[in-house]
């Protein structure tokens, strides 16, 4: 019963300790982390964690709805063509159409004629007549005028070849729509891909192919109130300026997070030479989305992906394959009900970070054994990473690095505050004590130097002389005892020329108590009473100067004349100054 009552009495203190140590520490740590995150200081670490999670996902295998016809280094060397000529490209497109490709995307810029004029005309005619072919252009930028699509292709069958690349050169987003930027370079020719009108939203190559593929299945895109695009029940949620770890995304582009299928096996690939040699079976082409583009290293149309950091070779992925990956994830979401990558809003992410920060603080507050604390922290980290991975498998991208930092920072902070605060304070006090002792020693040395100086010794001699003179003055003023008694009042009214300060030190206005005749009072005791009364008179300011005679004759002590009025004033001033200095030094020493 007593133990229960004691616990109840200690409850408020425990709550205060918990609140001050755990909650307050968690709030401060969370605030710092969220602030750093808002400034973009954690973006690199978080995107690195995103790449790690992407690499850890199981390989989804190839999407059988796609085929990539890659123009590799062997094709270029065999045909002695670079860039590939218009006639060769026209032959490849014709074969794909003849074998029943649903949509054909050309990831090759073809604004300038390549090869013979006959091949050029054949390509232009094919692009003009076919409804299945989508050609690409390149958007204008501040430092580039953009590249138009191939001649003869209608604007509604033009797709943007540009890919959204992060600051580190890695592609983590898929393009849906984009607006050309105003170029600072004079435009050699105006076209749809350098028209910087905000209303000129152009579809990416991957999105253009997806729309045409779904339209063949009677699935039309819709625009909802938020301005986002919807296919049946699947909404392509547009990345905001702040999305996940990103803090400053391009507000003019319509982009989504790119959920890769596989690092090397996302879509089936064949070479151009095999296609032209009829080595590709018709079943691999019929009803498929076919992309034609460069996969050769010499072209430099390759990009870093989240898989690059985990690969020793072939770190870059061809742009034509990246387009296929983006188109594949959209089709998987619409037709297979596979979720697109999603993320939380700001307040949900902040609450998630705060929760893990509180958990770390509680672990450090409750667990006192170091190895148990390390074990508990390790388990918490494993749970955090495991939870993030399981949610990422379900296409959810939640913060991993910020809560991890919050967990470790809160554990460290609480340990330092709760365990070692007293030690730290004691150490600091020790340093301060050393400084105080050093200052005290220095002060004592200065005092000793003053006391041992000739000037101070001279002042002491003068003080002794004044004391001796006071005794003589008193002996000259007091009447000898009569019949064992003193008179009750002794008042010195003798005129003098001494200054007021000297007069007050020597005059006696006192009532002497009556003593028993049988108790002789020694003269020394009387002198002590006189000195005490003199000190009281010096401190008192109630004595009227008018009642004191203006002059007092000089006294002769032991046959010697008293010092002059000016000398008395100087000596008294010296004594008072000496007393004040001594008092200050005693107070400083304390």
TrEMBL record:
InterPro entries: CHASE2. Keywords: Membrane, Transmembrane, Transmembrane helix. Residues 42-363 form the CHASE2 domain. The chain crosses the membrane at residues 14-36, 371-391, 397-417. This is Putative transmembrane sensor domain protein.
């Amino acid at each position: 019963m007593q133990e229960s009552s004691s616990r109840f009495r200690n409850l408020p203190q425990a709550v205060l300790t918990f609140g001050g140590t755990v909650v307050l520490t968690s709030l401060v740590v969370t605030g710092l982390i969220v602030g750093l995150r808002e400034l973009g200081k954690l973006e690199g670490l978080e995107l690195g964690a995103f790449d790690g999670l992407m690499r850890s996902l199981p390989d989804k295998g190839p999407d059988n709805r796609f085929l990539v016809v890659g123009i590799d280094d062997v094709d270029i060397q065999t045909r002695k063509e670079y860039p590939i000529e218009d006639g060769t490209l026209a032959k490849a497109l014709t074969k794909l159409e003849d074998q029943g490709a649903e949509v054909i995307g050309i990831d090759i810029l073809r604004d300038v004629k390549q090869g013979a004029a006959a091949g050029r005309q054949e390509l232009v005619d094919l692009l003009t007549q076919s409804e299945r072919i989508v050609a690409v252009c390149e958007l204008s930028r501040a430092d580039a005028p953009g590249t138009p699509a191939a001649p003869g292709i209608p604007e509604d069958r033009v797709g943007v070849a540009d890919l959204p690349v992060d600051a580190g050169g890695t592609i983590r987003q898929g393009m849906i729509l984009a607006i050309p930027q105003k170029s600072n370079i004079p435009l050699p020719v105006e076209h749809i891909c350098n028209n910087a009108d905000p209303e000129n939203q152009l579809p990416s190559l991957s999105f253009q192919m997806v729309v045409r593929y779904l339209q063949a299945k009677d699935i039309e895109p819709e625009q909802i109130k938020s301005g986002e695009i919807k296919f049946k029940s699947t909404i392509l949620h547009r990345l905001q300026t702040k999305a996940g770890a990103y803090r400053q995304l391009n507000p003019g582009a319509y982009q989504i997070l790119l959920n890769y299928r596989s690092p090397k096996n996302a879509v089936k690939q064949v070479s151009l030479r095999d296609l032209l040699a009829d080595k590709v079976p018709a079943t691999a082409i019929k009803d498929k989305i076919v992309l034609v583009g460069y996969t050769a290293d010499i072209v430099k149309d390759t990009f870093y992906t989240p898989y690059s950091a985990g690969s020793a070779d072939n770190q870059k992925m061809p742009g034509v394959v990246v387009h296929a990956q983006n188109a594949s994830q959209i089709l998987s979401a619409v037709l297979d009900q596979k979720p697109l990558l999603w993320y939380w809003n700001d307040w949900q992410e902040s609450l998630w970070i705060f929760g893990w920060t509180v958990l770390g603080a509680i672990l450090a507050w409750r667990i006192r054994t170091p190895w148990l604390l390390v074990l508990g922290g390790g388990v918490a980290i494993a749970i955090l990473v495991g939870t993030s991975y399981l949610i990422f498998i379900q296409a959810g991208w939640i913060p991993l690095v910020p809560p991890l930092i919050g967990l470790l920072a809160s554990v460290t902070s609480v340990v330092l505050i709760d365990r070692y605060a007293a030690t730290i304070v004691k150490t600091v006090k020790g340093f301060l004590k050393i400084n105080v002792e050093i200052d005290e020693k220095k002060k004592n040395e200065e005092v000793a130097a003053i006391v041992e100086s000739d000037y101070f010794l001279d002042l002491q001699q003068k003080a002794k002389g004044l004391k001796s003179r006071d005794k003589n003055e008193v002996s000259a003023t007091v009447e000898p005892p009569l019949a064992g008694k003193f008179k009750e009042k002794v008042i010195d009214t003798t005129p003098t020329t001494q200054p007021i300060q000297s007069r007050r030190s020597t005059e006696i206005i006192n009532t002497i108590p009556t003593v028993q005749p049988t108790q002789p009072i020694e003269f020394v005791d009387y002198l002590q009473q006189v000195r005490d009364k003199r000190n009281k008179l010096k401190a008192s300011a109630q004595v009227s100067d008018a009642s004191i005679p203006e002059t007092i004759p000089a006294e002769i002590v032991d046959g010697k004349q008293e010092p002059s009025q000016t000398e008395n004033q100087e000596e008294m001033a010296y004594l008072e100054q000496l007393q004040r200095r001594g008092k200050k030094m005693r107070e400083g020493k304390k």
